[in-house]
Amino acid sequence: MSFPDFLRTDRTPKRVAVTSPRTAAARRARHPVTREIDEQTMVGEVYMSSLIRTQFRLALFVCTVLACVVCGLPLLFLLMPELRDLRLLGIPLPWVVLAGLIYPAFIVGAWLYIRQAERNERHFAELVERR
Predict the structure, then answer these.
(1) Distance CA 44, CA 47 (A)
(2) In what helix (H) or strand (E) does residue 122 lie, and over which residues does it extend?
(3) pLDDT per position as a tens digit, 89-115
(4) What b/e sequence results for 67-97 when a residue is b if at least 16 CB atoms lie within 10 Å of its CB, and e otherwise?
(5) How far apart are alpha carbons 57 and 3 in whole angstroms?
(6) Residue 68: CB partners within 8 Å, gap ≥ 6?
(7) What is the helix (H) or strand (E) element at residue 87, kind and residue range?
(8) How distant, in Å, are the alpha carbons of 14, 29, 45, 48, 122 from that of 42?
(9) What is the pTM for the complete model shown?
(10) What does the pLDDT read at residue 97?
């Protein structure tokens, strides 16, 4: 049985490495702040600690809002008994809010947190590249 020409292994070309003629060209200098951060100098430490502080403040804000919502809703239902007696589709309102509506609110909060955290990182990267 003979193989078609395109399947024959004896005619397979050898592998060739293709390189750019600019591989020996000088690379663009990195930003001095980036170098400071990579080398973990005092200046780099100041920049990194500012990013960490910003992200930590954002996380504290989100956790505070979450704690207020989680603790505030039962307190609201405790202080306003007329809300406890309301029914939505035959289900008591506290159950609807605490068991069903709070999870979409958590997802929206998480999405907003991620968006803001990425924005903080983008601003940090722009700051580092400008210097």
Answers:
(1) 5
(2) helix 102-130
(3) 888 888 888 888 888 888 998 999 999
(4) eeeeeebeeebeeeeeeeeeeeeeeebbeeb
(5) 69
(6) none
(7) strand 87-88
(8) 52, 21, 5, 10, 22
(9) 0.63
(10) 85
